[in-house]
């Protein structure tokens, strides 16, 4: 092994998670054992791989098995263990040449996938193999798309934008009777799937908002693919200017800290987005208007947020519940006993709350 500092590598550090590069990096190859790799990674050392790409993937799998998190006493304990495991696995690194060229034996062509996420590259770089595999997988999803039965078409998610693989919340928006077809605000649009469903149902004007430029770029591309070029998009914190007779929001469901940009679609520290949406909602509903809040009860099942806290937030904002439509999840984790959260997921219910200003 040839030790060198990250600066001595002369390579740009690529990351979408904001993590710092390892202070110490050693060059390693096919001769490195999984046990030695684990020892180095646990100590904080980065492992710059110069062997066969498929062997690097095998090593990453072996490391994953060796530091698989055991069940935590609480949800937060489980999250902390998962974060530690992610840090360890993130220390197996892959060098890229200018233009995001991967020169490892049996390595795939990653140029398009990396350019989509990191932009053009004119210098050598270093990236976590775990992140690179995520980038490759996201590119494949972006090309292949996710079939949405309610649209009879596909949505193409970008890297860092939550994929609509949990179809039950989409079905709720597709099947609940519309109180209006005049104007709808879609708050936190993400891939744009709910805005597209609303337009598909005949809503004349949809305004889709998000605070993430990456999400808005994804949504615009999907609207163009689907022929919904009239959907308006706006980068803003929650609401666009004005009022609407129907406002739809599918906020992050769990009040916990996100560890990656993608997790921001799932985790909402302190329920900040949810509370801000509810508190400001009455000022953006037209008289007699309605809001659809799509929310899972997983936070309640994990003892992260009691139901009373949600109903109290409704009352604080002066909102009344006109009705609620429930659905059981159909995704694989709901029936997978190996999932650390299986006991909660097996009981989970996703609801569309119909809210109105009192």
From TrEMBL:
GO terms for biological process: methylation. GO terms for molecular function: nucleic acid binding; protein-glutamine N-methyltransferase activity. It comes from the Bacteria. CDD domains: AdoMet_MTases (cd02440). InterPro entries: DNA_methylase_N6_adenine_CS, N5-glutamine_MTase, SAM-dependent_MTases_sf, Small_mtfrase_dom. SUPFAM superfamilies: S-adenosyl-L-methionine-dependent methyltransferases (SSF53335). Residues 156-296 form the Methyltransferase small domain. Coiled coil: none annotated. This is Methylase. It comes from Amycolatopsis orientalis (Nocardia orientalis). The lineage of its organism: Bacteria, Bacillati, Actinomycetota, Actinomycetes, Pseudonocardiales.
